Amino acid sequence: MLLIKSKRLRDTIRVVVPFIAVPLITVLGALAFDEKKHIIIALAVAVSALLVFAAGFEKKSTGTRRMVIAAVMTALCFAGRFIPILKPVAALTIITALYLGGEAGFLVGAMSALLSNFYFGQGPWTAFQMLAWGLIGLFAGILSDKLLKSRVLLLIYGAATGIAYSFIMDVWTVLWYNRGFDIKLYLAALVSAVPYTVSYAVSNVLFLYLLAKPFGEKLSRIKTKYGV
Amino acid sequence: MRSFSEYNPIAVAVWFFSVTGVAMFCSYPALMVISLAGGVLFFLKRNGFTHRKTHLFFWLLFAVLALANPLVSHNGKTVLFVMNHNPVTLEAALYGVNSAVMIIGVLYWFRSFTQIMTSEKLLYITGALSPKLSLVLSMALRFVPLFSRQSAKISAAQTAMGLYKEDNIVDDIRGKSRIFSIMVTWALENGIITADSMEARGFGTGRRTQLRRFGFRRGDILLLAASLALLGVTAAAIGTGALSFEFYPSMEMKELTFLGISGIISYAALVMLPIFIETEAELRWKYLRSGI
Is A188 on the interface with B (CB under 8 A)? Predict the structure, then answer.
């Protein structure tokens, strides 16, 4: 209400950020800074991507019911992060995206990261976590036709995104530690993160296997009953 | 006279991201040390000597991070010793320590920030960005305790009906998944009812207001202006290369110019701002109380 009051300004941001600001940041950043400053570019791109999504979501006339269901799923993700070792956040995000669309998936993934980090520790990684989980949801929404038809494909998607999530977060770890990208450190980070990578992939597959069907039934029931 | 956490959240957030931004994007050792010292001091000022586990974890992490670099990276001229046919260099070791100082400093800042930025302030900031997102966040926050209460109720009802035993693992898992399934169905239905009730009361017809109002007072404007000005000087010093420090191939520090020194001083002032504010508020309280 204070920062972006007028609708026109929000619309401008929606156009300016993805088509002008993000490429400009990337190109200028690559030219102006040496490789040691890649972290600035990475963080700026992540934050502006999240801002674009926020502006777009604000503009769209999303139904109240849809928003409340997104809030319910976010709360479930938050609660799910308390389960030791196995984390159902990505799986729940994917399920939401399958039945409510990619935008809802992005919303649930990003918001769960933001909210749960208030408990698990905020840090500069929050922006990356938000973006990573959000994108997992967004792509699940885009691929929803295929993923809904074949369970095997869904489980493969779960495993792949689990591994991809870990790899993305390791890029961030290296950038933060070293400021520039360093392949040796990245490989070391990947190796030391193997238990986490396995746990992400396994929990995605496990929770998608267990939850996809019952959750799908519940969500489609709500959809037909109330016409969300 | 307010304590730092009572200032307008936007001013506090700007100050916070200035401090951590400089710490993250620059690798000048003096600034890193200032950031770490300030972060620890601020955390101690707010919490006293509690949170022992946090400190322990941070300093263990510090040791791991400081040692990781010389073992992986073999750049640098001064070889200290050779391990497994790989040289361990002084430069890489110090680079690791510098990175560790930065990371632990930022972790301390973020820990304090999470304590200051309570959920209502987060909602205030996201509300400025997007009222709808702010609504989703605030509802999700409200749902977490609601769901845990509801699942306790469901579990009690299931136990009363004799459907839930904890004797063996299979029964336990079955019972838990049944409770979870009931909970989710209830949560979704309850969400729809909430949404309908909100719409019936006129949600979306007007501008949304906040439960708590944060005005922009003179102190907030001063804090905002001071943060931006000090950040500007530091950023200018870093941007023009007045503060540059090369670790590889051998350590090389640029002679400190006037701009470099003022950059360091203004960053130190930026880091100390909240500590000044808190101390000033404390002293005034003391003075007022002694006047009674």
Answer: yes
Distance CA B199, CA B179 (A): 30
Cα distance between residue A141 and residue A135, in whole Å: 10
ipTM of this predicted structure: 0.78
Summarize pLDDT for B74-93 with one digit per residue, the tens: 777 777 888 777 888 888 88
pLDDT in tens, B179-227: 888 998 999 999 888 888 888 888 777 777 777 778 888 889 999 999 9
Q: Find chain A residues with C-beta within 8 A of B113's C-beta.
A: 122
* Beta strands per DSSP E along B72-162: 79-83, 86-89
Give the whole-angstrom CA distance, residue A226 versus residue A208.
Answer: 25
Residue in A closest to B208 by C-alpha: A1
Contact B188 A214 (CB under 8 A): no
Identify the CA nearest to B103 among candidates B61, B45, B71.
B61
**How far, in Å, CA of A91 to CA of A165, rounded?**
12
Stretch 119-178 of chain A: residues touching chain B, C-beta under 8 Å:
121-124, 176-178
- At which residue do the structure tokens 């006339």 appear? A61
Q: Which residue of B has its CA nearest to A123?
A: B110
> Beta strands B86-89 and B79-83: pairing type?
antiparallel
